[in-house]
Amino acid sequence: MDRRAPALMLQPFMLHAWEAAAIAAVVGGAVGFFVVLRGQAFAAHAIPNGAFAGAAAATLASVNVLLGLGAFALVGALGIAALGRRASRDVATALVLVLMLALGALLLGFGSDYASQVYALLFGEVLGVSGTQLVASAALAGAALATLALLYRPLLLCAALSESSQLRPGGRRALELAFLLVLAMATTMTVPVVGATLMFSLMVGPAAAARLLARQPSVALGLSVALALAVAWGAVALAYLTGWPVGFYVGTLAACVYLAGRVRAGEGRLPRLR
Questions:
Q1: Could you say which of 4, 64, 143, 191 has the lowest number of CB atoms within 10 Å?
Q2: Residue range 42-46: average pLDDT?
Q3: How far apart are CA 256 and CA 202, in angstroms?
Q4: DSSP 274
C-alpha cells in the first residue's frame, strides 16, 4: 500500500467523497431506523430500484439525473401508497417495483452509449461526486431529515400500536404516505452515491443492528446513524485503497455490522426494541 494514501485521501475530490458519504449515511441511518421499525425493508429496496428508471430517462434526455430520480421515486412512493389501500403492502410494493423496472428496461434499450453512467447509478460512484451534486444532495437530505423530525413521534406511536388501536385509518394512511415520501427523498439523494442496488443495505443493515443493541428508540436512532456513518466511510476508504466498487464494500460492511449486532445481542441478551 502506498504510504502517501492517508494524505491523498484528503485531496479536494476525496473531501467531496467523504462529505457525500456522510450525508448519505446520516439520512440512510435515520430513515433506515423507521424502515426497520415499521417492517418496510421491501419498500426501501423497491423505491431506489424503481427510481433507477427515472435516472435512465434523465441520462437519455441529457438532464440532471437527480430530476429523474426524484420524479420516479415520488411516483413509486405514491403508487405504493395508493395500491396499498386495496392490496397488501408487499403486493403493492412488488407491483410498483416490477412496473418501474420494466419501464427502466425499455428506456435502457433506447440508448447504448452511457454504460458508465448506468454502472455508477446501479453500484454507486462516490469518488466521482461533484460540488454541484453535493449541494443538491445536502438540500434534499436537509428536507428529508426535517420532515422525519416532524414525523418522529407519530411514527413511533404508529409502530407501537396495533392495527386495531385508536389510531384512525385515515391518519395511518396519511402517515404511511408521508413516510414513503421521506423515503423517496432519501432515495433521490443517496442513489448517486451508493447505487440503486445497494442503497437499501445502508438503510437496513446498520438500523437492524441498532434495533438489536439498543433499548430506547432515541438511542437506537443515534446508533443507527453512527453505524451507517462507519459503514459509509469505511467503504469509501476501502474502495480508494483497493480500487474495488464502493457498493461492494457498503453491502459487505452493512451485512457484517448486522451480523456483529446479532452476535452481541445474543451474548448480552439485550431485549430488542419494539
A1: 4
A2: 88
A3: 12
A4: -
